[in-house]
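Justification of computing resources. Each target in the renewal requires a structure prediction run like the one illustrated here; the chain below, 131 residues long, is used simply to show the kind of job we budget for.
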Amino acid sequence: METLELTSTLGIHACNIGVPLLVEVMRELGGYESHLAGKNGREEEREKLKEEFTKKRGYWHEFWEDFLRLDPEFFGAYLEFSTVPWVKGKKEGEGGRGGVLEPKVCELLVCGDLRVCLLKVIGQGVDLLCV
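Resulting structure tokens:
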């Protein structure tokens, strides 16, 4: 079940390429700062989301910053959805993680799934994985 839960989050990886491009275009057109101006006053909310993500997933990477700045609601929804394999079966405040798979196995599955998705996107197919 955890494998399916992990695989269901793969669509976000397209955003790892798309969001930086979106931010670049928004900056060129002058819309980035004005968009963020509507999100002012939410620094505390963003910091809590960042802390929660780091606690549940065990890491933070700078590419999440623009997701979080542009749309805290989207990021919060993704946080709840994507962390299920890491936290299921745990009670609030409980240490460690729930589920059957160790965190490093979860990350390995995500990396493998990502590689398959990227190969499909660039049109070379999954057969390259067998080489």
